[in-house]
């Protein structure tokens, strides 16, 4: 389907959700984004800050492949041309999730698990970029096995 033919109705059908939810987001309703954000903001179980971060990233592999994850992934592209919707997406969905990771990384630095001066933004982006790349392009699944290997290959480059 050409991009210019993309509609919210087609988005809703493709991920099997009610079109009203997609329209609420497109109309700037914060409720739909808050609901999506709440699904993601659960804290991982016990363990060190770095272990909790690792668990959160790996758990994200299941979520990104779920119907809600597919909607969120499609919204990433959809919101790019609407400044208000893009800002709402960042404020209500993406940045709250990212702040969890930032705080865990700060705790991991304080605990000596990550090197002092670790570039937190780089670490988060290096891990999440490939996951969203796979989810958006669809050439390969961002499944648990891939994400586990990704995390286990990347984290040692940042650890103390």
> Would you tell me the structural class of the helices and strands?
mainly alpha
Question: How many strands, what sense, and barrel or not for the largest sheet?
Answer: none
CATH class categorisation = Mainly Alpha
Overall spatial form: globular
Average predicted confidence as pLDDT: 80
Ends apart, CA distance between termini: 48 Å
Helical content (DSSP H or I, runs of 4+): 55-70%
Number of strands: 0
In CATH, the topology is named Tetracycline Repressor, domain 2
Number of domains: 1
Q: Strand content of the residues, in percent?
A: under 5%
Radius of gyration: 17 Å
The helix-strand sequence is HHHHHHHH
Low-pLDDT segments, ≥5 res: 1-6, 15-20, 33-44
Under the CATH scheme, the architecture is Orthogonal Bundle
- Full CATH superfamily name: Tetracycline Repressor, domain 2
Q: List the total number of helices.
A: 8
Description:
It is globular and about 40 Å long. Helix 1 (8-14) packs across helix 2, helix 2 crosses helix 3 (30-40) and helix 4 runs antiparallel to helix 8. The protein has helices at 8-14, 19-26, 30-40, 49-64, 67-78, 83-110, 120-137, 144-154. Mean pLDDT is 80; it is low at 1-6, 15-20 and 33-44. It has a single domain (3-157), classed as Tetracycline Repressor, domain 2. The chain is mostly helical and 160 residues long.
Summarize the structure.
With 160 residues, the protein is mainly α. It has helices spanning 8-14, 19-26, 30-40, 49-64, 67-78, 83-110, 120-137, 144-154. It has one domain (3-157): Tetracycline Repressor, domain 2.
């Amino acid at each position: 389907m050409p991009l210019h033919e993309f509609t919210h109705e087609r988005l809703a059908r493709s991920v099997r959700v009610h079109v009203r939810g997609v329209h609420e987001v497109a109309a700037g309703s914060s409720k739909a984004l808050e609901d999506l954000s709440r699904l993601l903001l659960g804290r991982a179980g016990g363990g060190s800050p770095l272990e909790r971060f690792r668990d959160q990233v790996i758990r994200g592999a299941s979520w990104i492949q779920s119907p809600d994850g597919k909607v969120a992934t499609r919204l990433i592209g959809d919101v790019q041309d609407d400044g208000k919707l893009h800002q709402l997406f960042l404020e209500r969905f993406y940045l709250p999730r990212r702040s969890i990771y930032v705080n865990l990384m700060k705790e991991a630095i304080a605990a000596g698990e990550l090197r002092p001066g670790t570039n937190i933004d780089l670490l988060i982006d290096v891990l999440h970029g490939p996951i969203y790349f796979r989810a958006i392009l669809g050439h390969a699944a961002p499944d648990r096995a891939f994400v586990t290997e990704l995390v286990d290959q990347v984290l040692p480059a940042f650890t103390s």
